[in-house]
Amino acid sequence: MDVMNWKQLLSAKRWGYESRQVDDQHDARSEFQRDYDRLIFSSPFRRLQNKTQVFPLPGSVFVHNRLTHSLEVASVGRSLGRIFYNEMRRANPEIDNEIPYLQEVGNIVSAACLSHDLGNPAFGHSGEAAISNYFTDGIGVEFKDQVTPAEWADLTHFEGNANALRILTHPFAGKDEHGFALTYTTLAAIVKYPCAAIDGHDKNTHHRKKYGFFKSEEPVFEKIAQALGLIKDADVQTGYKRHPLVYLVEAADDICYNIIDLEDAHRLGILSYEQVERLLLPVCRDDQLEGRLKKLADFDSRISLLRAKAINTLIMSCAKVFAENQDALLRGQFGQPLMAAVDVDLVNAMRAIEQVSVEKIYNAQSVVQIEVAGYKVMNGLLEEFIPAYLKQERTKYDTKLLALMPQQFYTQRQDTYAKIRSVLDFVSGMTDLYAVELYRKIKGISFPSLD
User: CA-CA distance, 167 to 186, in Å (whole number)?
Assistant: First the structure.
């Protein structure tokens, strides 16, 4: 039976610079710390500050956006990776000599966490749905016969995770032809569903619930998977079993959004302090905590303490599951998120949080309003730009409209799929604010300032 191994899975080989020699011994930063820094200073990462996490932005009350969420996920991910490394070193004091990059797992997971939402469009999941539905129920249906079934599968199921891999590796016009040139391991660690769209959407198989790369990036992931020794998924044509570090990235994301959405809901008055306390206390597992909470007069401070304790409990529990299931993880046989495999009391506590989140938070009026508005905006932009870019003979309006699309998103290829993908690169990269402003100007709802 195939088994992955950490020595091959942890590679400093860099996308587009595979032949370059690595010498971490004389550099201030390791190759994986470089990955983290490249992401922090990048434009796509900065744009996350104006992309909706759950609640509308901006507002007089601070709530999380995609950028603050990603930073917090990266912090949790670093802790998960570091705990795993410490456990491995405790079990084998010679591990650093046998697997030199194992000590970098915290940095690798942290970098992957930074980029896990990089491909999400404006307006959260509503933006993804709008892009998909443009092709399934909108005027985009007319392009079905112009693309292959595999290409149509990813157009009709836009996936932010797959878009992140494209952003990081695609040679956009005028940009570095190697994309972000991240290490193979960091790139593999962000792909939660390592298959193409045509093989995804299997609700009974955790690593194929969705998909992780567009048809255009299939050769990219294939190259990364083979270099790292990922196990081929025998049940589908394009699939692989996950890189084990994906589970830590996934756990960091699960921990943060489950807990922190409660904090935001309290700030906005959607949930009372008593409701949040009742949900988080069973997760905290600290017998002294109630006494400490009573000493704090400020409710926000109390919730901050509850949040910190809950996250710590979940980090330790998920790290334990990861360490105890090494064999299954390396054989590609671990078929659930780490959060689903913690002890039953924690699982039940998290289910209670999820139930309240769905009922009270994700269906709150302000959340639904931004989803509906965002859906209209994203769909409206696609209705304008895609037909204009695909036309062989463009009208004057088409030419003027396409002048609004930066040159980096243009493609030299002439096939329909490549051109559609280029427009999706442009529209999916927009912030909430930019998408709304551009939509209003194109539709004549507002006019540019003449000042």
Answer: 14
Q: Tell me the one-letter amino acid at 338.
A: L
pLDDT digits (tens, 9 = 90+) for 364-404: 777 778 788 888 999 999 999 999 999 989 999 999 999 99
Average pLDDT, the chain: 91
What dotted CATH number matches 250-365?
A: 1.10.3410.10
Residue type, 381: L
Reported for 365-371, long-range contacts at CB under 8 A and 24+ positions apart, including other chains, are 366/55, 366/56, 366/268, 367/54, 367/55, 367/56, 369/56, 370/52, 370/55, 370/56, 370/123, 370/126, 371/123, 371/124, 371/125, 371/126
CATH 1.10.3410.10 domain locations along the chain:
250-365
User: Which residues contact residue 404 at a Cβ distance below 8 angstroms, ignoring those fewer than 6 apart?
Assistant: 438, 442
Task: Read off the tokens for 331.
Answer: 């054989």
Residue 232 φ then ψ, to 5°: -70, 135
pLDDT in tens, 309-325: 999 999 999 999 999 99
Q: Give me the DSSP letters along 310-337.
A: HHHHHHHHHHHHHHHTHHHHHTT---S-
CA distance 331 to 389: 46
**Residues forming a β-bridge with 52:** 65
Alpha helices in 116-159 (DSSP H): 124-136, 149-155
What is this structure's pTM?
Answer: 0.93
CATH class assigned to 6-228: mainly alpha
172 touches 438 (CB < 8 A):
no
Structure tokens at 339: 């959060």
Between CA 304 and CA 306 the distance in angstroms is: 5
Cis peptide before 58 (omega within 30 of 0): yes
14 forms beta bridges with: 183
* Region(s) of the chain under CATH 1.10.3210.10: 6-228
User: Tokens representing 271?
Assistant: 């949930």
